[in-house]
Description:
The protein contains 15 helices and 17 strands. The chain has helices at 7-16, 19-28, 34-43, 73-81, 106-122, 136-144, 169-179, 182-189, 205-216, 227-236, 248-267, 280-285, 327-332, 355-362, 451-455; strands spanning 56-59, 65-67, 85-88, 94-96, 101-103, 287-295, 301-308, 311-314, 366-367, 374-376, 381-383, 385-393, 400-403, 405-407, 412-414, 424-426, 459-461. A five-stranded antiparallel β-sheet has the order 2-1-3-4-5, with helices on both faces. A four-stranded antiparallel β-sheet has the order 7-6-12-9. Strand 4 and strand 5 form a beta hairpin.
Amino acid sequence: MTSSGCPHLSNYKSAKGLQVFRIIHSYFVASQTVEARKRKSIWCICHTCRQHGHRLHSCLHCIFFGCYVNHRHIHEHARAKGHFLAMDLTYGVVYCFQCGDYVYDGELEVTARKHRIQAAKLLGVKEYYHPWEPSSYEVELLKKNPKRKRITENSTIGLRGLINLGNTCFMNCIVQALTHTPLLRDFFLADRHVCQFQDDPNMCLVCEMSRLFQEFYSGNKAPHIPYRLLHLVWTHARHLAGYEQQDAHEFFIAALDVLHRHCKGTNGMSNSNPHHCNCIIDQIFTGGLQSDVVCQACNGVSTTIDPFWDISLDLGPSHINNSSSGGKKLLEEKDSSNSNSMDGDNVDDSEPTSLLDCLERFTRPEHLGSSAKIKCSNCQSYQESTKQLTMKKLPVVASFHLKRFEHSSRFHKKISTFISFPQYLDMTPFMSNRRNNNNNGSGNNGYKETADTVNIDNKFVWR
Length: 463
């Protein structure tokens, strides 16, 4: 999102003012009244496909709601009508199709903030939380010191060491990663957690994580001893108990699972999917993996979507069939005798050298062969098929697990191949809707569909 706005939005404001923005925002983004909330629940559907979507956009030039992600009907509307400004009904920000980006405007932000405060009061929330913004004095100070990055004496940026409690380096590296995840940090430092262990709060792992965040950001530079965290992990994940060296990836998944179980009682279930939780762990780390099995006889497609916390990627040659499941799916299928793999087999013998290579192999179609025939629901008979894994929904924070250990009946070895990571990772080529996206034309009426308009929701910054 740009910070300086755009000339197209400025021209729109000069011609039509802010009234349209105020009406749409007060009814369909931050509802101001009970009646507005009822209208939002009824009318927030795409006017073309008649589906509810979590990224619905409203045209600012006419009365039209269109989906932004699934079928991209708001893009078609912009091309056909020449209406280049639309509002995201989830976040209340304005998208300019001519600039190919979301744009920021100070006047609109002031209006939106007033609406959000009023909507919060309607829901019984005493104080609406909004992120820190620099004052005019602080802005001028930052402009005068653009290269000021050194750590001052009173800095509390979370840099603190952890004492190794006997082969616990696997735990320490995961704790460092979690404590420096911005959304997780903001949640715990804002004291948002409500403990579910009222009789014995010392058994709550989330309470201990909250204390850990306070320790990290207290300004104390002495190394911290996470003995209470280790004890709780041993208590709630007994397979990790003991002083032996453990796998960091296994600890990461176990920690997320325990945090998820201790959090979900306070957040309730998702409104869009009753099987999904709205706890802070799911909001940050959970994505959706789509598996498409295509019958080779009739081309019928069977689609399943499973949640995941991480993506496990093969590193060895393709003829080695390593199969394991990513975090959340593994935990949910742990007691099932028929566990599906998140990892697709590869069709070439070359080893990947970059994260993009690994993801390309992961999402490549796989022929299941005659020994793994499935019963097609269309043919009503067992047929050969192909299987392809793609990303249906990306998490806010994506976690990748590189499978560096190769196991066979004769030997076990570690794969030491160097894997390069891009600073900015674009996941668009690996998304489920990428294969069905036919809107690649140059457009008309001044509409510009650049790479940014397609990829803006699918980019990650490496941390």
